[in-house]
Amino acid sequence: MRPFSATLNELIVLSEEVITRPSAQRDPRWTERMMRVAAEVRRADARPCEGPRTSFGAMSMVVALEGLLAADDMAKLLWRMHAAGALELVRLDVYQELKNTREQRG
């Protein structure tokens, strides 16, 4: 299993792709990657955590990206705006995850 920080970094890349290039979500490979990352985020969120939890922003982003995929054309802009807002929360999660990892290693 890869480190959660790698999952968060991939979530950031996926989010930036769909925010800056809306056509990315039509690519089945993007959807497959997003679903895989969403499952990893959910598994990480379900695990016990030592130190501050680092999955809240990621869970918000996962919901935003899933909402974007399911939305009709009129609502896609709102879901994209939600994803853009959640992006900074995911970046904070990455920073906290790196701090937690460093503290665990001593």
- What is the percentage of strand-forming residues? under 5%
The residue-averaged pLDDT reads 93
The computed structural class is mainly alpha
N-to-C terminal Cα separation, in Å? 22 Å
The overall number of domains is 1
Tally of alpha and pi helices: 4
Strand tally is 0
Q: Could you describe the largest sheet, including whether it forms a barrel?
A: none
**Share of helix, binned:** over 70%
Low-confidence stretches: none
Measured on Cα atoms, how large is the radius of gyration? 14 Å
Question: Which H/E pattern describes the elements?
Answer: HHHH
Q: Please tell me what the overall shape is.
A: elongated
What does this structure look like?
- It is a single chain.
- The protein has 106 residues and is an all-alpha fold.
- It has one domain (4-46, 56-105).
- The protein is built from 4 helices and no strands.
- Helix 1 packs antiparallel against helix 2 and helix 1 packs antiparallel against helix 4.
- The protein is elongated, with a radius of gyration of 14 Å.
- The protein starts with a helix and ends with a helix.
- The model has no long low-confidence stretch (mean pLDDT 93).
Architecture blueprint of SSEs:
Elements: H1 4-20, H2 28-46, H3 56-70, H4 73-105
Helix pairs in contact: 1-2, 1-4, 2-3, 3-4
Give a summary of the structure in a few sentences:
The chain has 106 residues and is mainly α. The protein has helices spanning 4-20, 28-46, 56-70, 73-105.
